[in-house]
Amino acid sequence: MDVILTKMFEAVGAEYSEDKVRKTGWFYLEEWTGEQQDEFMEWLVDYLTKNQGARREILRMHRPSKKYVHKAAQQFIFNYGWKLKENK
């Protein structure tokens, strides 16, 4: 999980620490663009597809299809992703 969260923090130029994510509502601390979110989603799907240990941490099924991994990545971002920046 640390690898995923580190990558998510890096996507917005922030530094990950366990102390930050222990606080309630930590995922409201930063914002990202739709493009940053899409890039993270692509990375997360690839990472979960290739990394069995990460899949076991995030998913119920250990050998899921790419479609299932994509849905799980969407759910992760929905639950823990940064706020989207408003278009101006």
Can you give a write-up of this model?
The chain has 88 residues and is mainly alpha-helical. The chain is 60% helix and 5% strand. The protein has helices at 2-11, 18-21, 34-50, 52-58, 66-80, and strands spanning 31-32, 83-84. Strands 1-2 form a two-stranded parallel ribbon. Helix 1 (2-11) runs antiparallel to helix 3.
Key terms:
mainly alpha; globular; 5% strand; 88 residues; 2 strands; 5 helices
Topology of helices and strands:
Layout: H1 2-11, H2 18-21, E1 31-32, H3 34-50, H4 52-58, H5 66-80, E2 83-84
Parallel strand pairs: 1-2
Helix pairs in contact: 1-3, 3-4, 3-5
Using only CA atoms, what is the Rg? 13 Å
Largest sheet: 2 strands, parallel
The proportion of residues forming helix, as a percent range, comes to 55-70%
* Sequence of secondary-structure elements: HHEHHHE
Number of separate strands: 2
**What is the mean pLDDT?**
91
Given the structure, what is the number of helices? 5
Strand arrangement in the largest pleated sheet = 1-2
> Domains counted in the coordinates: how many?
1
Overall spatial form: globular
Low-confidence stretches: none
C-alpha end-to-end distance: 33 Å
